Amino acid sequence: MSSVDPRPVLIAGAWSLSDKVDTFRAIHPRTLQPIGPRYPVSSRKDLQIALQAGSEAAMAMAVTAPEDVARFLEALAHRIEARRAGLVQTAAQETALPPSPRLAEVELPRTTRQLRQAAAAVRDGSWRAPTIDTSTHVRSMYGPLGGPVAVFGPNNFPFAFNSVGGGDFAAALAAGNPVIAKANPGHPQTTEMLAAEAHEALLESGLPPAAVQMVYQMPYEEGKWFVAHPLLGATAYTGSRASALALKRAADLAGKLFYMETGSVNPVVILPGALEERADEIARELVASCLMGTGQFCTQPGLVFVLAGERSEAFIADVVRGFEEAPVGTLLSKGVAENLVRSVEGLRKAGAERLTGGRPGGGEGASYRNTVLRVPARRFLKRPVDLEREAFGNETLFVVAEDRTNLVAALGALEGNLTGSVYTRRDVSEDDLYDEVASVLRRKVGRLINDQMPTGVAVCAAMNHGGPYPATSHPGFTAVGIPPALLRFAALHCYDNVRPHRLPVELQDRNPTGRLWRRIDGEWTTADVPS
Amino acid sequence: MSSVDPRPVLIAGAWSLSDKVDTFRAIHPRTLQPIGPRYPVSSRKDLQIALQAGSEAAMAMAVTAPEDVARFLEALAHRIEARRAGLVQTAAQETALPPSPRLAEVELPRTTRQLRQAAAAVRDGSWRAPTIDTSTHVRSMYGPLGGPVAVFGPNNFPFAFNSVGGGDFAAALAAGNPVIAKANPGHPQTTEMLAAEAHEALLESGLPPAAVQMVYQMPYEEGKWFVAHPLLGATAYTGSRASALALKRAADLAGKLFYMETGSVNPVVILPGALEERADEIARELVASCLMGTGQFCTQPGLVFVLAGERSEAFIADVVRGFEEAPVGTLLSKGVAENLVRSVEGLRKAGAERLTGGRPGGGEGASYRNTVLRVPARRFLKRPVDLEREAFGNETLFVVAEDRTNLVAALGALEGNLTGSVYTRRDVSEDDLYDEVASVLRRKVGRLINDQMPTGVAVCAAMNHGGPYPATSHPGFTAVGIPPALLRFAALHCYDNVRPHRLPVELQDRNPTGRLWRRIDGEWTTADVPS
User: Fold this and answer.
1) Which residue of B has its CA nearest to A465?
2) Which of A301, B155, B277, B399 is most buried, with most CB under 10 Å away?
3) Which residues of A touch B252 (CB under 8 A)?
4) Closest-approach residue (CA) in chain B for A488
5) Running along chain A, 531 residues long, what does each successive block of 10 average in pLDDT?
């Protein structure tokens, strides 16, 4: 089907002609011209086929050996590496993200590492938290949801969060669920290439061919129908808050799980002692963190809190200089640039003052000048909701607090965020103020950081890429970090008085691998159940 | 305030006059006459005071020692035991549940056991799943939500699920959150007595006095405002589905966590071999499970599946006899009796045939005759949603499947349920059909049971009193079983590069107790972090 126009969708285990309602093409963010083939906007019929096939695949996967799932995830990682040059080139064209180091040396290896970590988690099985109470004959563990997981990928990570091959995809499959991916329309060809590799990897593995399905786009109303469908297990959505909330509403009404990760403003608090000690170093870190990837990270520092004073003024001036000296990057799309115009306007209307930037252009294609704004905490406290609206891109807003009371009050007025960072003097002399600041931030953020910018997200078991609403829809779950990210896509399966030979191997008396961690009568152990 | 009329509410750390919009009294289910004092229906003002005080208590609890929480829970257990006679007498009057053995020997000891298990979980701390990645300096664990948890208690467990002292109450506090309890209006005096004990226990402990607050009732619209309030951490609701869904909608729209447990029909599948082998025994078990507590259990078997045949006919006849011979109990309230009339009518309209009962009366006060209905699977398959509507009380519905295909199809048409039970012949000769039945049920229920009725719910770590929607709102969580029940009320708290002395003790290198289970670099251990 290599010359099909528009391109086929991957549903029911095969590349098929879409029952389309429209078509679209990717737009080159630098030239703003269409590139690559035409892609279909799927009708409800495509989605219906995918849901039915996904539901059957979910039943088949309930009896698939974990080893098959692990081999699939590893085969996909291997295939992505084998096609690295083409993937990087295509993604760079579609997103304007730098091919090197960003795409080739950072994001692609992160993606394959995630897939391999997911494979390891599946093989190990300890993520299921097998729990055995010997005296009551009750045993339980996490299992799949029983229906496919819809994954909506964002525009800003064409590999690591791609709806095919990205973090949510890996987590959903590792938890034993089929995936129905909805490509991000910003990079359809990258997604098509990843889906082609996933499909081939599937055919080599023991998984049902409909374990991975993919459509490119769907009309707004059909999206709401889709996430609320009875056959669906859950939705993982990463992207803009407005779309997320409309879909969440539809899913909630139908009692369907909906995990959203819609970014945040990631407050960074820089206390006076840190500025006294290392203002230059922190300014460099802040500028780099704000402008990396043209500021298009969920964890970009969008709000920087300092206490009023000469040192803070010098620091702000230094950061402004850094923003002015840095080249203006190309944004992911014209839409991102337009949103940034609107967002900065909104912040200014709410009382923020422009220090630099604040208008479109300055770079190639879709671009907006590197922008720094400021607002006194006193004013921030009057309109906190308007002033903590995310401006996705190369912008940041300083909040200058008149005193400690206003600093703490302004932090207390924040909504839920993914991260919160605090910089203090290297010794313990600022620990009192730190404690006050951290105790407020702890309730507001998923990840509390010291002496570091929020943009680095290590893929490790202790990571939390999550946080209180509206950063995400549930503060108990993380979208990054394996195995915990799998728990979003798991149901708790309890077996009460079930005859021993009918139990899943993970819950039988004998530890199936000798390495599986299980909680037996309250103690974690890799031993067999004592007889 | 012992003679205050109406009774005061417990808000902001003290018994206070309610800013009431109305009053009500409990109704004796046997005499249908009002009993006990008048109780207030709280206005929004009461709720506002409670939310503000609860939010401040949440901040205070963030730095409260776990030992203080544990001592509070134990003190409450002790006080409940000390006041046992009065509590049992009052609850029996308000609910018509048998004082003995049900209330005094079963439910009250279960309640105090839950409180003590929660205390043990708090002291142990392993429920927080402290996770340490040494190479990345990222550490995380579960912590409190940062706001009070609203607990709405059901009518059918005046102690074990009471909004004060019951399972959700214990779990929310053990996870470090204050509770704002909303009493069930069916047993206000029982709840008042429990709240009095909780308040005294609080004053003896190091917890903030507003860690436990309680109101009796609120207008419908104020309930929706309450569960959506920004200061609230989460809501746990056990009760009728219609009210639950209205509140869930309001909470969802505001991004507030809402855990509902609204019961289910708990399919019991009895395969031919089991009937051939032990029909009498199973009939006795079924009748007892259906009529215990006049059938008013979340896990009461409301749907019983058999394959058509002579043995099944004899079995059904036997069960009908059992229902007819058993005394007709008094229901919890006139409202429950009226709902049962409507529910059975609905089932009959949808095609169910009456075998016995099917009309009000037959017992003292609020009562309804022990009722058995039947429907062929063929007809069930035409209107599954109408025929799996819960009829809360002493009723059950047989679904007679024409063949294995229809049996499996009918099970496949079920919505989410708390439990599913399967009875088979004692040897392995029915395992093929078991596998088919169990694989369908596994996706539909939280707890899969063999050779046992669902009404016994052991309070142990492996228990799952939960299940797919609409039985609950999230299939990954359980309302019974400590420590897992705590996770509903927890946020994932990550610490990234946080200086060692600022970490919570649970995440510092040294294991604080030598017994705390932590996941260090992927392995569960009670050891210190290797240096």
Assistant:
1) B494
2) B399
3) 248-249, 252-253
4) B476
5) 87 97 97 97 98 98 95 98 98 97 97 98 98 96 98 97 98 98 98 98 94 97 98 96 96 98 94 98 98 96 98 98 98 97 98 98 97 98 96 98 98 97 98 97 98 91 96 97 97 98 98 98 97 83
pTM of the model as a whole: 0.97
DSSP class of residue B331 equals: P
Size of interface A-B (CB pairs under 8 A): 210
Distance of CA B425 to the CA centre of its chain: 32
CA-closest candidate to residue B422, choices B414, B411, A504, B413: B411
Residue A3: CB partners within 8 Å, gap ≥ 6?
none
Residue A231, phi then psi, degrees to nearest 5: -80, -15
Maximum C-alpha span of chain B: 73
The answer to whether A81 is a known catalytic residue is no
Report the top-level CATH class of A47-262+478-485: alpha beta
This complex has an ipTM of: 0.97
Residue B276 to chain A, least CA–CA distance (Å): 19
The question of whether A460 is a catalytic residue gets the answer no
Answer yes or no: do A133 and B462 touch at CB < 8 A. Answer: yes
Mutation target vs A (from B56, B117, B133, B140; most A CBs, 10 A cutoff): B140
CB spacing of B524 vs A524 below 8 angstroms? yes
- Distance from the Cα of B512 to chain A's closest Cα (Å) equals 17
Q: Could you tell me the fold of the domain covering B9-262+478-485?
A: Aldehyde Dehydrogenase; Chain A, domain 1 (3.40.605)
Exposure letters A301-325 (e unless 16+ CB within 10 A, then b): bbbbbbbbeebbeebbebbbebbee
Ranges of each domain in chain A = 47-262+478-485, 268-450
CATH code, A268-450: 3.40.309.10
Classified as helix, coil or strand, A448 is: strand
The DSSP string of B313-326 is HHHHHHHHHHHHHS
Which residues between 253 and 292 in chain A have a beta carbon less than 8 angstroms from any beta carbon of chain B? 253, 255-257
Q: Is B491 on the interface with A (CB under 8 A)?
A: yes
